[in-house]
Structures are given as structure tokens and as C-alpha cells.
Design goal:
By secondary structure, the chain is α+β, with helices and mostly antiparallel strands. The protein has 2 domains: 161 residues, Aminotransferase class 4, branched-chain amino acid transferase, N-terminal domain (D-amino Acid Aminotransferase, Chain A, domain 1), CATH 3.30.470; 167 residues, D-amino Acid Aminotransferase, subunit A, domain 2 (D-amino Acid Aminotransferase, Chain A, domain 2). It contains 7 helices and 19 strands. Strands 1, 2, 3, 4, 5, 6, 7, 8, 9 and 19 form a 10-stranded mixed sheet that branches. Strands 10-11-12-13-16-17 form a 6-stranded mixed barrel, surrounded by 4 helices. Strand 12 and strand 13 form a beta hairpin. The longest helix is centred in the middle third of the chain and has 16 residues. The radius of gyration is 21 Å and the shape is globular. The chain starts with a strand and ends in a 9-residue tail after the last strand. Bound molecules: pyridoxal-5'-phosphate.
């Protein structure tokens, strides 16, 4: 790895009590370029802009995918990643589907650890705080012929993130728009999936909702995901989530919730979730909770479901009765080294001192 440390750290001007998520970047970034059929050296550089032209293939044809993951600091200042091998596997699954070169485990893991290590002082401490890390791959070749690109960049950037608390939201069950289709790219973390979801989400907002529950593209009769999160439904004391597929992204948080539910003795069923079943349960009072899960906020609880022009209100349970809240606490305690880690999910970021390049 080639390491070039910044001479102008911005850390002193970073106020961990007052910053905005997503546009404060840590001092460094990871860059690696692909050319002539192979990846070059991994470089750790000062964070900053890079020269590209509007003819870059990634922005013209959308060969771009990314990951979202976090680093956590415990009370003693130790820094941990959470299940990073899942993100490594998934970025390559996405790359493959978009006909992009896969990254090596060494590039991904060593780059990740070196970046978090060198900027460990940027990882905010305290409940709910973390460093949000964004690995990505995109086509950089300057060419306008519509074909698979020959040049790519793998990069990792990161931004500090605050508390997990997210207000309960009202979600519209989609009866027209789809996030993903059979044979499509829904199971890849393709940048374009997000672009395609913004407009339908804006329309739902105009109708008084915060987000969309995506349903299957063929019939709109089955739950798939909610916004950019996987979805869980609790009817009586059983929780349901649809099986992952080529239309449903295989979320790390979803998988972790399923494992934590099993350990707690909560019955979890991975099976198709018909919209009708959820609406029926709402009518007869057995629908207890509906929530979304993902790395960014862990859990977003839903306070209302929009269906057929009606807004169906959901009860908001106190934390001691809410499976969503209990599972979230279990997960966050594990991520932040407050509880035991029987699953082996935490990965310590070792302290290494780099020689100045
Ligand atoms: C990233 C993402 C998720 C959540 O995945 P996590 O690994 O839990 O963060 C769910 N759905 C979509 C569409 C996503 O892009």
C-alpha cells in the first residue's frame, strides 16, 4: 500500500457535537485504479477531488456500485468494524452483475483497516455514534461507446455519523412504481437503483408519506423492501421478512436481526409477505409493528401505512414491548462492544503506525 498522509488535518475543526452527516469527510481516502485487466497499488491519500471528464463511462452508463458500513468506538477507544466480510462479498456480487472487475479481499480489507486506523480519531465515541464508510467501484474510462469499460476506480471514503435515532415514518405501499424487477439489478447495490427510487419517493412525499414500501413489480401484492432498507412485519408475536432474491437486497442488518431474534427466542419467518395479510392483520388488531432495517440508522419504525388511498395508523409500542427496539438494542450493544459477541461479528481495527511516505 502506498501511504501519503495529509499535512493539513481538518480534525481540529471537527466538532463531534455539531456536524452534519454525509458531507463532513475524514482526512484520508483509499483509491485503487484498474487498467489493462488488473488492479494497481492501493493508495491511501489525503481526501479530496480527483480529475474526471464528463465523458467518464461511469456517469454515462451507470457502471457504479457501492457499499455502506460502519466503524464503532467503544468506551476505551477501541475501534471495531462490523461483519466487513459481508460487505466485501456483496460489493463483488454487485460488481459482477454490472460487468465490473471484482476487488480482491486484500484490497478491500487492508484498505478499509488502514483508512479507519489512520483516521481513528475521527470515529465519534458515545451511544449511537459511528463512522459511516463508503467503499465504491465505478467506471472511469473516457469513452462514449456503450460497452463495458476498461478502466475503473475502487475508492473508500468515510463520514462521521451521529445517533441512530430516527423519527417514526409514514410509508406508502407502492401500487405502481417498482424498485427492482425480475432479471434486474435489485440485489446489487447499484448506484442507479437509488436514482430510480427518488422520483417515486418524491411523489409519495407529496401525498404526505416519508418513504415507499416497495412491492413486487408483477402484481404489487407482496412486500419487498422499504425505502433503502429491508422490511420486517410483526403479526402477534411472530416476525416476518421476505426471502432475499434477485429483487431484494441481502442486507447485513436484516441477517443480523434474524440471528439475534433466533437467539432471543423470537419466532422469525422468512417467507413472502402478502400486502393483504398485513392489511388483514391491521384490521383485526394483530399487526403489532412494521419496521425497516439497514446500516445507516439500524431501524426505522413505521407509524402509518398508505394503502389504496387510505392511511392506516400503526400503534407505537414502548421499547420494552417492541421487538424492533429490543433487537436494535441487542445489535447496537454488540456493534459497540457493550455486549458479548457470540457470533464473532466484531473485527478490531488494530493500531498500526505508518511510516511517512
Ligand atoms: C444497503 C441496502 C439495504 C440494507 O443493507 P445493510 O447491509 O443492512 O445496510 C437494504 N436495501 C437496499 C435496497 C439497500 O441498498
Amino acid at each position: 500500500m502506498i501511504i501519503q498522509k495529509t499535512e493539513n488535518s481538518r480534525l481540529a475543526s471537527f466538532d463531534p457535537q455539531n456536524f452534519s452527516f454525509g458531507n463532513t469527510f475524514i482526512d484520508h481516502m483509499i483509491i485503487c485504479e484498474y487498467e489493462n485487466g488488473k488492479w494497481g497499488d492501493v493508495r491511501l491519500l489525503p481526501y479530496g477531488p480527483l480529475p474526471f471528464t464528463p465523458a467518464m463511462m461511469g456517469v454515462n452508463y451507470g457502471q457504479a456500485c457501492f457499499e455502506g458500513m460502519k466503524a464503532y468506538k467503544d468506551k476505551d477507544g477501541k475501534v471495531f468494524l462490523f461483519r466487513p466480510e459481508k460487505n466485501f462479498e456483496r460489493i463483488n456480487k454487485s460488481a459482477k452483475r454490472l460487468a465490473m472487475p471484482e476487488v480482491t479481499e486484500e484490497m478491500f480489507m487492508e484498505g478499509l483497516k488502514a483508512l479507519v486506523n489512520i483516521d481513528r480519531d475521527w470515529v465519534p465515541q458515545g451511544e449511537g455514534n459511528s463512522l459511516y464508510i463508503r467503499p465504491l467501484i465505478f467506471a472511469t474510462e473516457e469513452a462514449l461507446k456503450a460497452r463495458v469499460a476498461n478502466k475503473y476506480m475502487f475508492a473508500i471514503v468515510a463520514t462521521p455519523a451521529k445517533s441512530y435515532y430516527a423519527e417514526p415514518v409514514a410509508v406508502k405501499i407502492s401500487d405502481h412504481y417498482s424498485r427492482a424487477a425480475s432479471g434486474g439489478v435489485g440485489s446489487a447495490k447499484a448506484a442507479g437503483n437509488y436514482a430510480a427510487s427518488f422520483y417515486p419517493t418524491q411523489l409519495a412525499m407529496e401525498e404526505g408519506y416519508d418513504q415507499i414500501i416497495w412491492t413486487d413489480d408483477a402484481t404489487h401484492e407482496y412486500f419487498e423492501e422499504s425505502g433503502t432498507m429491508n422490511v420486517f412485519v410483526r403479526i402477534d408475536d411472530t416476525i416476518y421478512t421476505p426471502p432475499t432474491s434477485e429483487k431484494i437486497l441481502d442486507g447485513v442488518t436484516r441477517d443480523s436481526f434474524l440471528n439475534l431474534a433466533a437467539r432471543k427466542g423470537i419466532t422469525a419467518k422468512v417467507e413472502p409477505v402478502p400486502v393483504k395479510k398485513v392489511i388483514e392483520a391491521h384490521k383485526n388488531g394483530t399487526l403489532k409493528e412494521v419496521w425497516g432495517v439497514g446500516t445507516a440508522v439500524v431501524t426505522t419504525v413505521f407509524k402509518a401505512l398508505g394503502y389504496n388511498g387510505e392511511k392506516l395508523e400503526l400503534p407505537l409500542l414502548p421499547d420494552n414491548e417492541s421487538f424492533a427496539a429490543q433487537l436494535k438494542k441487542d445489535l447496537v450493544d454488540l456493534q459497540t462492544n457493550i455486549s458479548e459477541d457470540p457470533f464473532g461479528w466484531r473485527v478490531l481495527v488494530e493500531k498500526e503506525v505508518f511510516e511517512k511516505a
